[in-house]
Structure formats: C-alpha cells, structure tokens
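Hi support team,

I'm filing this because I wasn't sure whether my run with iron/sulfur cluster finished correctly. The job status page said complete, but I'd like someone to confirm that the output block is well-formed before I use it downstream. Pasting the exact inputs I used:
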Amino acid sequence: HNPILEVNHLKKYFDIRGGVLGKKVGEVKAVDDISFTVNPGEILGIVGESGCGKSTTGKSILRLIEPTDGEVKFEGQDVTKLNAESMRKLRRDMQIIFQDPYASLNPRHTVEKIISEPLLVHGMSKLERKARVKELLEVVGLSSYHASRYPHQFSGGQRQRIGIARALANNPKLIICDEPVSALDVSVQSQILNLMENLRNQFNLTYVFIAHDLSVVKHISDRVGVMYLGRLVELTEKDKLYDEPKHPYTKALLSAVPVPDPDVEKERIILQGDVPSPSNPPSGCAFHTRCPVAMEICKQVRPEFEPVEVNHFVACHLYNETAQ
Ligand code: SF4
Ligand code: MG
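And here is everything the job wrote out:
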C-alpha cells in the first residue's frame, strides 16, 4: 500500500529579528530536514523534549505554519503547492487536536456551536447538523444533553473529548495529535488514549501522535520517531524502539524512564549539558556535544538518516561502516 502521508526533507526556519529596524539577525532551525512516511490506519508517534521541533512539524504538515522547504504529500499530492482554495478543501481530510482543549474551544460558544462549525461548509440543514452533533458527542463518550453547555462546564478530559468530536465532524482521514493528553491527569490520560485508539479502529483513521512523554507514545503508537534539535534521529516499530534502541540519544531518553518492576536493574545514562540552542546548533551530528560515545567525525559530518535494518532508520555514524 502507498503511504497516506509522505514528508520529504521538511524544513521550517524562523527568522530572528533584532534592533530598532527589526532586521534579520539569525534564524532558528526548528525543523531541519526531516523525512518520514505514515501508512493508512497507522499511528506514528513522534517523541522528543520540548523545543525539538515536533509541534512545528505537525503544524507544518497542515500548513498552519508555512514550511520553509520540503514536500508534504497527502495521498500523493504535495500540499505545500496547493492554493488557498484547494488547501481549504483538503483541511477536511486533515485535522489537528491540540494539547490544551480549553484554549482551542471558544468559551462563549455552546458545545453544539463548536462541534457544528466545521459542518457549515456542507449546506446541511440545522436539523441535520443537530443530529450530527448528537452522533459525534456519543462517539466520543458524551451525550446530547451536553450540547447546550459551555466549555467551562466540563472537566479537562471532557473538553478534550469535545475537541476530538469537532476534529471528527467532517470524517477526516488524518489527525495530527499535538500533545493531546499532556495537560490531563494521568488517570484521565489513559481514558482519552483508549478512546483515540478505538476511534482509529472504528473510522480507519491515521494519526501522527506528538508527545514528550515516552510512556504515552508507547501506549498508542505503531511506530515511533525520536526528534532531537529539529531532526529525526531514529524511527522504527514501537517494540523495536523501546526494546532495542540504537541511537545514543534514544538510549539516554529511555534510560531515564522509571521501570515499574524494582527487580529490573537499569543503568541510567546521564547526558552532560543542556540541549543546545536551535539558533546555533552544533556542527555535524547535532547531538555530538552531549553524546557519550561521540567520535571525531561526529563534529564535522552530519549523519544521514538511513535504514540500518528493514524499517529501522537511524541517524548516527556508529551504524555507518564507511564513516568509521
Ligand atoms: Fe553520537 Fe556520533 Fe552517533 Fe551523533 S553520530 S549520536 S555524536 S556517535
Ligand atoms: Mg509542543
């Protein structure tokens, strides 16, 4: 099967402006040449620390921010080349769910109005819209009597259900989920994750699931990509990534996750120093300033993001024989 989403050499650089004239004085390479594909019906997790560029990647895919360079192919069509009208049509197929549902729901609108807003494009009658809102509320585990209420009358978890209902209104194919459970209590997180997984199965949805929390991503994803300083450093099937990580950064991240079983001994890899600024990223491998096994070549040459086995991509000179 063909991928539903293909991201090729995506870049998003933000200008840094300074002085009274606001002249460009530098740039932040928030996303710096990343490529990946997502298959229909798949949940691709993207994980990394805050500021690694994962949200910028999600927003660039939908062109909520304009990519600086690269291709974003949705069902074979490069969305970066579409005009505003075609993009508007395509936005029905590609939706986004945000971290903070409260900030993304208009506090002065009823739930009915919030969920039915995306339906206005169809020329549905008021009655048809009402019926669709009822259906959507039930699909996300709420009831039709919630329709006349306002966002502040709901808990965080319920608000995220409303956000999900709105995203589902136009039967999308792909949903970018940007930290959808990060603002929720741990007990509510798993309810929302289970709901999202069920919805994926029920409606054959595809998700790009962005989060900083490794256990959340592990819970829901089929494959997982790890980002560091605007770059993808590793991407493979979920179990492979968690059981046999290859990139030194992935190994360090995973070593910091507490193990539930106290009998399992785990060596914690402590990384030295802070994440460097994306406005002045290190040369070569961007991780070389903190990598416990960095080599001379790592300072000079940027490692390619390449398969080291079938379906296992890693950007690290350790796995490239000609580099050593
Ligand atoms: Fe470490 Fe070098 Fe691999 Fe980068 S390329 S992760 S610095 S070994
Ligand atoms: Mg973010």
